[in-house]
Amino acid sequence: MKCQRIRLIKELQNSHFFGRRxxxxxxxxxxxxxxxxxxxxxxxxxxxxxxRAFKIKQLGQRGFDLLxxxxxxxxxxxxxxxEIYYRSKCRELKLIK
Length: 97
Description:
Blueprint: E1 13-16, E2 32-35, H1 37-46, H2 48-71, H3 79-92
Antiparallel strand pairs: 1-2
């Protein structure tokens, strides 16, 4: 897998456009991007507008607007559902049996 910003194969982190505290999109794949640590820090701290432009290009304006609506729609944490979701994604990616 490659960093979605610079397209090089590197160590990757999961970046959330809308932070993890936004429980309504914490597990939303459209809110997540694979970034190397330097790109993750750059878009998070130095170039939020660049990250926003990337997300709009990635999702389209309508898709970005819908993600934003989901992000600001309150939702309580459901730890059991989060675990079920996480395990299913790991199985899908063949990280666990």
